[in-house]
Amino acid sequence: MQTATLAHVARLAAVSENTVSRVIRNKGPIAEETRRRVLAAIEQLGYLPNRAAGALASSSSLIIGVLLPSLSNIVFPEVLRGIHAGLADTLYQPMIGVTDYDLDQEQRLLASLLAWQPAAIITTGFEHTQASRRMLANARVRVAELMDIDARPIDVAVGLSHRSAGVATARHLVSRGYRRIGYVGHDWTADRRAALRYEGLCQGLQEAGLSLVAEQRFDGPSSTLAGRDTLARLVEGDASVDAVAFSNDDMAVGGFMHCLAAGIAVPGRLALFGFNGLEIGQVLPKPLATIRSNRFLIGRVAVEKLLESGERSAEPQVIDTGFEIVAGATA
Amino acid sequence: MQTATLAHVARLAAVSENTVSRVIRNKGPIAEETRRRVLAAIEQLGYLPNRAAGALASSSSLIIGVLLPSLSNIVFPEVLRGIHAGLADTLYQPMIGVTDYDLDQEQRLLASLLAWQPAAIITTGFEHTQASRRMLANARVRVAELMDIDARPIDVAVGLSHRSAGVATARHLVSRGYRRIGYVGHDWTADRRAALRYEGLCQGLQEAGLSLVAEQRFDGPSSTLAGRDTLARLVEGDASVDAVAFSNDDMAVGGFMHCLAAGIAVPGRLALFGFNGLEIGQVLPKPLATIRSNRFLIGRVAVEKLLESGERSAEPQVIDTGFEIVAGATA
DNA sequence: CTGTTAGCGCATTCAC
DNA sequence: GTGAATGCGCTAACAG
Prior knowledge:
The structure is a homodimer of 331-residue chains.
Chain A: H1 6-13, H2 17-25, H3 32-45, H4 51-58, E1 63-68, H5 75-87, E2 93-98, H6 103-114, E3 120-124, H7 130-138, E4 142-148, E5 156-160, H8 162-175, E6 181-185, H9 192-207, E7 214-217, H10 224-237, E8 243-246, H11 249-262, E9 271-273, H12 279-282, E10 290-292, H13 295-308, E11 317-320, E12 324-326
Parallel strand pairs in A: 1-2, 1-3, 3-4, 4-5, 5-11, 6-7, 6-8, 8-9
Antiparallel strand pairs in A: 10-12
Helix pairs in contact in A: 1-2, 1-3, 5-13, 8-9, 10-11
The structure holds a DNA duplex (16 and 16 nucleotides).
Domain HTH lacI-type (chains A, B): 4-58
GO molecular function (chains A, B): DNA-binding transcription factor activity; transcription cis-regulatory region binding
Organism (chains A, B): Mycoplana dimorpha
């Protein structure tokens, strides 16, 4: 079976190809009677538009290029869910690439995404190679940079201030009476946002006349396992810490597991504080004190913003999706 | 800046477009000197092939359509990671759709993926609408059906036997001395694989002259929260159960949390058994007894198999990626 | 409101 | 080894 084309539909409906095209794209005025005939023909033939042809002719496609740093961290699949939710009921399709937090990899993937003439590119963070920036500037696509809003975006940024989240963490712990605060983190040479939260944390403590009394960093990506082992190292080194801020919830949940196994009372002996507000933290015997970061919302809002208009606005836009303290019971 | 096309490259290299096209696709014989000149021109112009044009001309694209039932369940992002790993170092790009376990939604997404003339379609399970099957039959694409191997695939199936995994669970629990075995599950009207594991579990118990002494099913998708609450309901109803098989690790981890909070000794008073082998289960104070399902491998192997050849083989192929019992310490 | 005319950028025949 | 011609299926002008 030969797949139907515009020409077949046009012949069957006894109109020109152009008219069929107009009906499909809802563009230009069409007589109700004509539209009916065309739709009937489309239905009868099971016609599916060839997107490649459409993209070539219009030099723009219904593809949204999505660049994610990782799929291992549950945070990004959640952003992707939001993107999907925003794309539902549209004809756009996401084409995704995973950069492994590598800017050169991002650049390569960006090039191959742009080869499809996507309508928009969604990526994360503000760090890109010069070549990537140049490509994005030359291509006439909308660009969203997700997660972070602590810098000037290319087009639109959607996310939260990680620095502020760090400050909020410090203030919360201080207000709860903790004074000997430690930090357990992962390797954030590639994770600028974790670094920003750390900076905010230090700044917030400083405002209260305090500073970190201990810190321990795992040399690798964040995980529950890393959190467990790294907290163990921290308390081994300095038993006087009364609260620990973790680089994120995965690490904090791991820390909680260490406390369970080692018989450390939480929060009596040691308070724990995470970041992200993942489900797993809220199912612990004591719900994790953390900050909710609205990942799903970030993805959805980004898509909505991008589809609002085909053109960039004169000034870059910043959309703050905010965050909330989740008090929990571990701090 | 106008983006460069084949024609520009051809002019600069003083050859025909055709020759440039051959160099790019490594097809047909090319004089070394010519190739050099062409590559230099490509480099100089920063030429990027327009994939839409290529797809239109060759009526086949470098797109791999991926249909996933969900992104909320960490299992599927892991499959997607495997797919990405298999696609790395190729020019193929994944275009993804999320079906929410809805076959009609799968059909709609399939139609819009096929509109891009993808080289292959990757989907999950063996249940598809008649229309979906017809589209897949008519389109000349490779098709992989992932996760499950308990039925005859359209083209290739990659996964494990969930029925066997259920049987293995039963045998393991029985061999460990448990006799009063219960089941805690989620709503699997849409999750055929969980149902298959359940069937296998019952079958395995029957082989040992046993049957489930209690079961409780959460009316919704699986989650740690659901697992916690549903186990609570189960033990409330029948306190004599000595082991519980969960529909998956998420549910089991939730169950573990309930035991922690309710002071139920694991496995002394109650043994717990999951499915998937997620990291979170292995970080519990007692590592979860479970079955590892090799999600990453499933994705990667599927891609490798699909790219092996552009044509379906005469007979459908089944690739068993297997599973292993993770003994853990909760059973 | 509808039809006509031209490409979009590339791959695929064939020649030579 | 290389080039010339043709068309993939559609959209974008412009007429009328």
